[in-house]
């Protein structure tokens, strides 16, 4: 009979045995899987686990610092790396969604490789791979797939030659959550919506600039905080905002404005493979629309996406 507590006990014992006094490097994403993997390995080997959390400049508003602080509170040996400029320059001028994904994946690998070289005598790479990632044979998603699609270019980065330790590779998502909960991972990490690895870069249609990221972060934060305030956050699978590459006419006093359009997207789903648009209350949508237009400079129109997957995807890129 599987229980989270017994999984933790046996896994920690097995990790101790396997890793011994070696060092492990692990990239934290802020998501549930990498966080739980880190907690298990940390419980087994303590400060010999070196965690790296990269700020790619494409995260939600204030998320990097908030998540970094909570990792530190959990006792993890974590280094926050500000690589925002590196990601922005890699993205300059790119508009094709797959080109943006590739540039982000490659930059992540460069940053991670550089950081892992700073750890002396590291011999293991820890990963938060879960069972569905293992069985998903043809995957175009996620950091490990990103790594796969790059490891032919100029040979493997050194960290990919490390031995791999994946303590969650037999678990499903709900089991990972149960393990995280039993180890005291905070609810705000456990209950968070999925968020794509390329982050806001695939929610800004067209090219990425720091200014567009800043606008979208404000819009997204108002939407997400509104969902939380109204008790709607846990009722949807995923929510976010898209910044569209068009402007539309508005009116302010006697003046006509010509400003940006944002699309809000919230879906219900079981696994992200299919999804229905979330039937959020009209009164909520009305309030959020007003709040966004009043507070976010440069945005004069808000639309709500009422498409289901398939054929529409959850993300717009
Ligand atoms: P779509 O847009 O394909 O998204 O319906 C399904 C789920 O996958 C996430 N997603 C990604 N996650 N890298 C990721 O790590 C990506 O490039 C990526 N693209 C989409 C999306 O947020 C949703 O949860």
TrEMBL record:
UniProt keyword Ligase, yes or no: yes
Transmembrane segments: none
EC numbers: 6.3.5.2
EC main group: ligase
Binding site for ATP: 29-35
Pathway the protein contributes to: Purine metabolism; GMP biosynthesis; GMP from XMP (L-Gln route): step 1/1
Keywords for the protein's UniProt record, in alphabetical order: ATP-binding, Glutamine amidotransferase, GMP biosynthesis, Ligase, Nucleotide-binding, Purine biosynthesis
Catalytic activity: XMP + L-glutamine + ATP + H2O = GMP + L-glutamate + AMP + diphosphate + 2 H(+)
Location of the GMPS ATP-PPase domain: 2-192
Keyword NADP: no
One of the record's GO molecular function terms: GMP synthase (glutamine-hydrolyzing) activity
Binding partners and assembly: Homodimer.
Function according to Swiss-Prot or TrEMBL: Catalyzes the synthesis of GMP from XMP.
Protein name, UniProt field: GMP synthase [glutamine-hydrolyzing]
Organism of derivation: Fibrivirga algicola
Stretch of the intact protein here: 194 to 510 of 510
């Amino acid at each position: 009979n599987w229980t989270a507590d017994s999984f933790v006990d046996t896994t920690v014992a097995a990790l101790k045995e396997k890793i011994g006094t070696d060092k492990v490097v692990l990239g934290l994403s802020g998501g549930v899987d990498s966080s739980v993997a880190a907690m298990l390995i940390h419980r087994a080997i303590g400060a010999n686990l070196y965690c790296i959390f990269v700020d790619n400049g494409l995260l939600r508003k204030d998320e990097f610092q908030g998540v970094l602080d909570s990792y530190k509170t959990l006792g993890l040996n974590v280094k926050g790396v500000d690589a925002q400029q590196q990601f922005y320059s890699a993205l300059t001028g790119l508009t094709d969604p797959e080109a943006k994904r590739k540039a982000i994946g490659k930059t992540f690998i460069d940053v991670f490789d550089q950081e892992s070289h700073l750890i002396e005598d590291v011999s293991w790479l820890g990963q938060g791979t879960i069972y569905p990632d293992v069985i998903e044979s043809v995957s175009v998603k996620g950091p490990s797939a990103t790594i796969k699609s790059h490891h032919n270019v100029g040979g493997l980065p050194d960290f990919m030659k490390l031995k791999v330790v994946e303590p969650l590779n037999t678990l499903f998502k709900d089991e990972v959550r149960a393990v995280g909960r039993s180890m005291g991972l905070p609810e705000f990490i456990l209950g968070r919506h999925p968020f794509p690895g390329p982050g806001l870069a695939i929610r800004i249609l067209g090219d990425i600039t720091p200014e567009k990221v800043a606008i979208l972060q404000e819009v997204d934060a108002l939407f997400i905080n509104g969902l939380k305030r109204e008790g709607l956050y846990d009722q949807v699978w995923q929510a976010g905002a898209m910044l569209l590459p068009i402007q539309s006419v508005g009116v302010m006093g006697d003046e006509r404005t010509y400003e940006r359009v944002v699309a809000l997207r919230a879906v219900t789903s079981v696994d992200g493979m299919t999804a229905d648009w979330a039937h959020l209350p009209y009164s909520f949508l009305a309030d959020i629309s007003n709040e966004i237009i009043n507070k976010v400079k440069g945005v004069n129109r808000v639309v709500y996406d009422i498409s289901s997957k398939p054929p529409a995807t959850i993300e717009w890129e």
